[in-house]
Design a protein that fits this description.
The chain has 269 residues and is an alpha/beta fold. Helix content is 53%, strand content 10%. The protein starts with 9 loop residues before the first helix and ends in a 6-residue tail after the last helix. The structure holds adenosine-5'-triphosphate.
Length: 269
């Protein structure tokens, strides 16, 4: 038996590296962070995530560390308001980029089913190859329809590549969930009257500031949490949903998150 065989074939080596998610022990003190890194790395390997996605992930991890890598009560309040907004919407759309596709493909499909939202791929660095790779990845995880490939509409105020959307997707949406959105695009969607739910670990990012509902949490925890709240609110009527939405105070949530980060009560592990 030649135990040096894994290093003889570079492709085989990559395959072995990307198959290790199940090998990360669940009781590892940094389990979630290791899984997250692994998924992003795998996303880059398979062409779903851009190399810049690695940098975005690193920036997010720093904030998550200071939040104790847990969903805070303010983030949970925001997730409930997000669920109400999605259920109340006429035409909700979930926008998916490379990091989101790599991190939470199944959770996105589940949320879309519960709140009856469209899923649309929307990329900062748009290439047809990556758009198709992400759409295929979402279909592999159970999506029925993935929008974003028609590219027949434009959000005003953005250059062509970054403003391109589907007319019957984000173009027609009244509420858009934009996890990990770039600040310019979040502001441009806001300017055309779309109500935005942003998931971003940085409460001071331009996207979090532009959001109707900012959820200051890791997308890995936030997306299933919105689904859980949506399932609980599914039978609520429009009056009850409107009450949840109107009671939500975005400034207060951003402020509470910032204070939690500044206090930085780190996990002991
Ligand atoms: P903005 O343009 O909105 O001011 P930015 O330029 O910092 O923000 P990017 O670098 O494009 O934005 O994206 C990184 C953002 O995504 C950071 O704010 C980071 O905190 C956040 N982020 C990265 N990974 C995650 C994650 N897994 N969950 C939630 N947020 C994340």
């Amino acid at each position: 038996m030649n135990d040096s065989s894994p290093t003889q074939d570079p492709e085989k080596e990559t395959e072995t590296e990307t198959e290790t998610e199940t090998e990360i022990p669940q009781d590892h003190p940094r389990y979630q962070s290791l899984i997250t890194r692994h998924r992003i790395e795998e996303g880059v390997d398979t062409g779903i995530t851009s190399p810049q996605g690695l940098i975005a992930e690193g920036r997010g991890e720093a904030f998550d560390y200071l939040l104790g890598e847990k969903t805070t009560s303010s983030a949970d309040d925001a997730a409930r308001a997000a669920a109400a907004l999605l259920l109340h919407a006429e035409h909700p759309v979930i926008s998916v980029n490379g990091n989101v596709a790599a991190l939470v493909p199944e959770a996105i499909v589940e949320l879309a089913e519960v709140v009856e939202a469209d899923i649309e791929v929307n990329l900062f660095n748009r290439t047809e190859k990556r758009m198709n790779a992400i759409a295929d990845h979402l279909y592999d995880h159970g999506a029925q329809t993935v929008k974003g490939l028609k590219a027949d509409d434009q959000i005003p105020g953005l250059d062509h590549e970054r403003g391109t959307v589907d007319a019957d997707g984000i173009g027609a949406a009244d509420v858009v969930l934009v996890p990990l959105e770039d600040g310019d695009r979040a502001a441009a969607l806001d300017a055309v009257g779309k109500r935005e739910i942003v998931i971003d670990l940085n409460p001071l990012s331009r996207s979090a500031l532009a959001a109707t509902v900012p959820i200051i949490d890791n997308v890995i925890r936030a997306v299933p949490n919105i689904t859980e709240h949506a399932s609980a609110l599914k039978q609520a009527d429009n009056v009850a949903l409107t009450t949840v939405i109107n009671r939500f105070d975005a400034d207060e949530v951003r402020e509470r998150a910032e204070q939690e980060i500044r206090r930085g009560e780190l996990r002991s592990s």
